[in-house]
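BUG-510 | component: ligand-complex export | severity: low

The export step for zinc ion jobs runs without errors, but we want the raw record kept on the ticket for reference. Input record follows.
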Amino acid sequence: MNALDAFRHQMSQINDLLNTMSLLNWDARVTMPPGGTETRAQQLGTLAEIVRERLGSSTTERLLEAAEREIEGLPDDDYAVREVRQTRAALETLARIPPELSAELVRLGSAAQPLWVEAKARKNYAHFAPALEKMVSLTQELAAAIGYDAHPYDAMLKQYEPGMTAATLQPLFAELRGSLLPLLERIRSSPALAPTHIFDQPFPKAQQRAFALSIAERFGFDPKRGRVDESHHPFEISLTSNDVRMTTRYNERYLPGAVFGLFHETGHALYEQNVDPALTRTVLATDLPGLYAVGGTSFGLHESQSRLWENMVGRSRTFWDNHFGELRDTFPEQLAGVNADTFYRAVNDVKPSLIRVEADEVTYNFHIMLRTELEMALLDGSVSVAELPEAWNAKMETYLGLTPHDASVGVLQDIHWSHGHIGTFPTYTLGNVMAAQFFEAAHEQVPGLAESLARADYTPLRTWLTDNLYRHGRAYTPAELLERSTGRALEAGPLLRYLTEKYEELHPVG
Ligand code: ZN
């Protein structure tokens, strides 16, 4: 066996262990009885320790050094070069984080979550504040350990969105605000009302599932290498590209929840199912510093695919012109007096709301800016945990003209900070921004793409996305994939063009 093969063998076993952890996590979220919580956490802890030991072992170091010698002279974008370099970088990052700090963060995460649940139920921020205080200070320690040049937030972003920094996010957000605030103003003063009352009637679960799943398969989801279940918080997880699982949640009195939820997870699933099979069980299907087996290259790039299929395809006029008939056949009584145009308007209703997960395409990014700006301020100390609710409410008023009536719909609404995942929020807006860049580039590069979408033929779009993004797994960074596929760096222009064109048409002046 040559050195590269020996190194790959070692890394494939680490990938196997991480996929096994993913299966235990999937089970915990989908089928495990509540009584299993404590022992499941112990099992996951044991496996994580085994993975860390293997990664940091002298065997891995010896195999990596030999592989480093073997890749000398290969071109920079060769997959083997990427595998070896990513492993070296991950080992360096993991070595910088003191094991006691990692353990303390895990302990605090499990202790803080029930406190957050109670605090939210009681609408009492003070009940969660001490845990959040501790979480912020441990995160500051973690940022210092990982290292950063300009802002502690950069160290956190590095884990979720390699290459992204606070200094890049700030002007991007300013540009989005500059165009989206006037667009929102226009929408609010427009007389065009969306007929959302059509959702307020019973839509049986079995039919919702049948419709959403048939669309997922039309988009290209392969049910022989995936499955769909139910869970309270919808998610997608892959156990290699051969076993990609999605979940959704059905609300029988709100049809769009499960339908668009499943379109969203299908975008994530298409990314995972279309990673080059040659990358299965390799470093290029493994988030090594995050100790997580995944084919997609970053949180933001993954989200760009869920948003692209959910919104740019699934919420388009073309889509409903094609598929509304099938939906009406599925729910003939409920949708008797509704046509494709009415339905299109209803699923694109824009209304500022206090709740992020209920937000539409236009207001969603404001929820993310607010959270990202507060996370940065918490980490650099410019806003204290005690000042947080007031800072939250002030930004909510500035961006969306709303004031939360209590903390459960304000500063306590998201689970993220109780887990300690400070730094993941901006990846949602980055996903929206990149989705529009890819969608625009695909239209420029694929002849007849608009016509194929108008025929409900999703193969040309999925093929472009697979060739340019999916198949590469984690070989390239988000910035490299943008540059290689669109010829441009990250930019707000395509998202602003997409939103402006769509919502101005829906909301004519006067
Ligand atoms: Zn998502």
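Assignee comment: Attached the raw record above. Residues 264, 268, 303, 306 surround zinc ion (CB under 6 Å).
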